[in-house]
Amino acid sequence: MRPTIERFAEAAAEKGFDVVYPFACKWYNDWVDTLPAEAAEKVLKLPSFARGDRCTAIVVGNSKAVWPKFTEWYKQAEEGRGEASLDHPFDAFTKRCLVDAGERTMTADGIRHEYFWSSRTVEGKLVPLQRAAECSGLAYLDHATHLCIHKVFGAWFSLRCVLVVDLPFECTVPPEPAPRLISDDEEARAKVVLQEALALGQTTEAQLCKVMHGPNDPWASWPWKKWVELRDVVQFGKEHRFTDQQIEYHYTKNKEKLRRELFAAS
Predict the structure, then answer these.
(1) Which of 92, 128, 114 lies closest to 213 in space, CA to CA?
(2) What pLDDT is stored for residue 86 in this prediction?
(3) Hey, which of 131, 168, 213, 260 has its CA 20 to 30 A from 174?
């Protein structure tokens, strides 16, 4: 890992974003090239900063390590009535921390970089972070259940962005895929839970991506506890399961309840 990226990883980890995984933009862009025309119209390719096949990208995410960092920041922000008034304080925290990490490292070293957030669209296109994680070799993506399973954290991690960096990536040969981290029995059970979740949410598997990346919060009316049940099916990495508080906020974004819990505990 190059020194600038190592420093970025350290700065991100200080704030709980402990998943930082460099890869070649080409690996993801080659996957985009395999898509049928209709699907490719909805997917954004990563830029290369004129480096062609050798431009570097980084998948950035977090385990449960982010939660105490966020709640500490949120309490301080709430006391100051500043950023806590935002609709989605965790999103604000994420962007503040990762942009700051980029400024302290990439910008300080004069290196161009660009963030592609999970919610960012460009002319209706986006970078599907689960696919980027799969192409990079960071995680196993189970296409039958849509579970993205990290090689350490299992199902208990979250993807926040892909960061493209104007640095050469020396290896252009794609990595071996991440090992299959879900058993046949677990996959069978997960398929059942997925269909139950879709039925309760009154949607279909074909519509799932559109719903998840649409303009509205999918969890406002969806049975979010079924999606937790889906993740709980995977036994690998279960020791890294999020706390109940983190899980509920992750799916409901109920900052009023979170605020009450945090200040009741202080």
Answers:
(1) 128
(2) 73
(3) 213
